[in-house]
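#structure-requests
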Amino acid sequence: MSREESVPPYMRLNAILYGNSYKSWDPSVNATGFRTQELQYRTLSHANYSRVAETFLINSRLRRCDWEGESSIASYFSDEALQMLSMRGSGSANDARRKDAIPLPPPARLSMELDKTLVRRRSRRVYTGDALPLSYLAAILRAAGGNTGSSEAILGSGEHRTMYFRAAPSAGALYPIDVYFGAVNVQGLTRQLYLYDPFGSRLIYLDEGASLTRAIDSFLVSDDTISLSQASGIFFLVAQPWRAMRKYGARGMRFVFMEAGAIAQNINLATVALGFGTVECASTVDDEINEALRLDGTFRAIVHTLVVGYPGSSS
């Protein structure tokens, strides 16, 4: 019997409760150059260092009588704004280099019932190396960021504009997140980085300077943790925050992250329904992955990644 096993359960519980019920007093923390997250937590009451994440939460709070914010939101109900919204998302494809864009086939049908899909959703980190059929990828991309519906908006001039909608909710239907895909092993695709165009239902090659190899190298995980070498591909969620912040200010950044979570869940569920598996991964070096995808890191930046593959028996 190990020493840990010989300790009665109530004593282990007492130790856990005690260890989380106080914060240590360490007046020298302000002069400490190496501060672990645990040290920062233990010294919140007296340390004097930047707390960026909490500052963001404070600065993005909604407040009453914010006339500037309300005016910004109201401006999106004008004819000009409706015309802009009717074209949202179509500009991303124009920004990418159009070199032999690849039309996607009709998406595979997601026939698994939702309750079964939810129960079976698990993170899958080990893959067999099997290729992902292109029709499966089309179905996952459609669930992630494809146009799944539309309606007609009538402008003050009497003109009609078609408004497109997607499966993942988006604040103000602004859709500030584009879906990039790195094809590692997909039937019919070369090993390359692509941008998904929901309006043309196609994949567009990124600029020649983009590098899937460098994007994969930016992951700080070993193949024993996530078998990237055996994966079918990687989804990169790329945000343009000012699409949302132009209307909602700093609070728009919250909406960007919320939308990324909704898109990620749609990818997870669609993948499970097709018999494949995914794992979400935030262990990426932002500067390196932004450079690999040819992003400036501010106006366009990576916010999340998901790895997809056929799950192995030990995943």
